[in-house]
Amino acid sequence: MKQYLSFTEEVRQALDNNQPIVALETTIISHGMPYPQNIEMAKEVEQIIRDNGAVPATIGIMNGKIKIGLTDEELQEFATNKQVEKVSRRDFPYMLASGKIGATTVAGTMIAAQLAGINMFATGGIGGVHREGEITWDVSADLTELANTDVAVVCAGAKSILDIGRTLEYLETNGVPVVGYKTDEFPSFYSRESGYGVDFNLDKPEQVAAVMASKWDLELRGGMVIANPVPAEAALNFNEIEGVIVQALEEAKQQEITGKNVTPFILAKVKELTSGKSLETNIALVKHNAQVAANIAVAYQDIQKDN
Ligand code: PSU
Ligand code: MN
After folding, report:
1. What is the pLDDT of residues 112-161, one digit of tens each?
2. Phi-psi region of 58 (alpha: psi -120 to 50; beta: other; left: phi over 0)
3. Of 14, 79, 111, 137, which shows the fewest CB atoms inside 10 Å?
4. What does the pLDDT look like over 256-277, one tens digit per residue?
């Protein structure tokens, strides 16, 4: 398995020295944001993690290798190359065998992080059960990965392009704890509210780290969702964004968009319909998630040292 992994020097040293590490995904760079905001965001987020005492490991696939940590040139490639594919669990074998360039989703990044021995990951939003998923069966592979792979994911909840209620039901069935970070309500990415609750509301990085430790000490396999609401000053109005989402979903249906193209199509539409306002919110929440993930990673490493 190790033959498929390739580490940057920074990440390699962090692993050797048991330093806290935070994984980052590349789909958010290649398919989630336009250039040049995507590359600016990617570099800023890495720096935020360093400033908070952890080491960033941005993950992507290139030349038949799973890259754990990317150089600035590689990041630039993910931010600009239009051939970059979106890589979830089912895409790994082909992507590695073909040597193509691929950006990892939440599911893909969790797989790679676990292979590398990293259990903390910061992103924007997770995939979930799509609206009308009971008809289309469009359920993100992110959810199955959360059920099975031992990585904690700090996110701003799930976009309400999804059926948040069914997404939370899926997570419950599969034993994935959903922690609200300083919130009782599961956030909906652009907004701090969704109308749905969380399983546990925790206020401190040490508390979240303790939950991670006991989950994995007990070998209760699988991930955790740490839902961290977008900072209030960057949040969008829940009802306004709902109108935009309904319109974007309608267009996706009319154009018969299916499979892995659904999420990128809707994300791009929402961005277009909010004339860029959603992009600012998106960047603000990812930065905040990176900071919280670094704080939790540091706290988790402290627990491991004490044991
Ligand atoms: N949700 C967002 N922004 C994103 C994604 C989801 O708000 O960029 C990306 C993530 O990489 C996520 C993927 O893992 O989309 C889910 O895609 P799908 O629904 O096709 O599983
Ligand atoms: Mn899907």
Report:
1. 999 999 999 999 999 999 999 999 999 999 999 999 999 999 999 999 89
2. beta
3. 137
4. 999 999 999 998 899 899 988 8
Q: Which residues contact 76 (CB under 8 A, 6 or more apart)?
A: 39
- Ligand 1 atom closest to 28 (CA): 8
Which ligand is in closest contact with the Cα of 86? 1
Q: Among the atoms of ligand 1, which is closest to the Cα of residue 88?
A: 21
Q: What are phi and psi of 144, to 5 degrees?
A: -65, -35
103: its two tokens: 């950006």
Q: Find, among 194, 266, 268, 177, the residue nearest to 230 by Cα.
A: 194
Q: Domain range holding 46?
A: 2-306
Nearest-CA residue for ligand 1 atom 16 is 127
CATH of the domain at 232: 3.40.1790.10
Strand, coil or helix: 80: helix
Domains in the chain: how many in total? 1
Low-confidence ranges of the chain (pLDDT < 70): none
* Dihedral (Cα; 224, 156, 15, 2), 10-degree rounding: 70
Q: CB under 6 Å to ligand 1: residues?
A: 25, 27-28, 32, 88, 105-107, 124-125, 127, 140-142, 159, 189, 260, 263, 267
DSSP 69: S
The ligand whose atoms approach the alpha carbon of 187 most closely is: 1
137, 152 Cβ separation under 8 angstroms? no
Question: How far, in Å, CA of 60 to CA of 75, rounded?
Answer: 9
Work out which ligand 1 atom sits closest to the CA atom of 138.
19
Minimal-distance CA residue to ligand 1 atom 3: 125
Cα radius of gyration rounded to whole Å, the chain: 18
Candidates 82, 86, 80, 81; CA nearest to 25 is 86
User: Active-site residues: which are they?
Assistant: 25, 159
pLDDT tens, position by position, 97-119: 999 999 999 999 999 999 999 99
